[in-house]
Amino acid sequence: MQIVGVVVAGGPGVFVRPLVHGTDPHRLAWELGYRIVRPLSATGMGDDLTLTVQVSAHGRPVTERGSQRRRALDPDLTEEEIGTPLVRQRLAAYSIVLSDRGLLATEFSERTAVPGSWGLPGGGIDAGENPSQAVIREAVEETGQHIEIAHLLDIQTDHWIGRSPAGVIEDFHAVRIIYAATCPAPTDPVVHDVGGTTASTRWVPLHAWQRMHWAAGTRALLDRHLVRLAMELGYRRRWATG
Fold this sequence. Notes:
Residues 88-227 form the Nudix hydrolase domain. The chain is α+β, with helices and mostly antiparallel strands. It has helices spanning 25-31, 79-82, 131-143, 216-232, 238-241, and strands spanning 2-6, 13-18, 34-45, 48-57, 71-72, 86-99, 102-108, 118-119, 122-124, 148-163, 169-182, 198-204. The radius of gyration is 18 Å and the shape is globular. The protein folds into 2 domains: 2-57, no CATH class; 79-241, Nucleoside Triphosphate Pyrophosphohydrolase.
């Protein structure tokens, strides 16, 4: 995957860099002298993705800090068990989905490091698939809902050493492309991909979303975007009426 920074949409790139293992795109841009204003597009398929972001020069001194700090999600891991972990960068796509029934949420299963926490529909990008296709497919598999992409919203990364759902110890770099989406004809959600990383799914009324136990990364995204998205996509009234 590579990151392209442009000052104006459609303009020439001021930098083009690969997103190497463990790198956060915001830090990458900052160390090149820019801050990311917003993502513009995610094109390509599988691992051959190009994320184009709008940037502005920050004009501040820069200290290179290297790879994003790793954190171990499995507290039971010992140094001997860690050994030489499998290095893996996983590109995935997720979406904040709104409808007349609220916010679409998925519960993490026991196969994950955060069982019982809630997140957003989405998952890994398959070979021959672009990010928007991946998030539409995952929404059907995890919730049974047919969604429509509104626009690219954010990019989020994390980096840790831990056990995969298969029990393999990995040096794992999660790269999450986040979309805003709507569901024009919401139904009662149902998990079709039984036995995977999604235990259950539901529509959460907008006035009640803060009562849910969200995974940390999801909570950060909702805190940053949900109010504005509800207004932008025409669901702000649902905050008061439930």
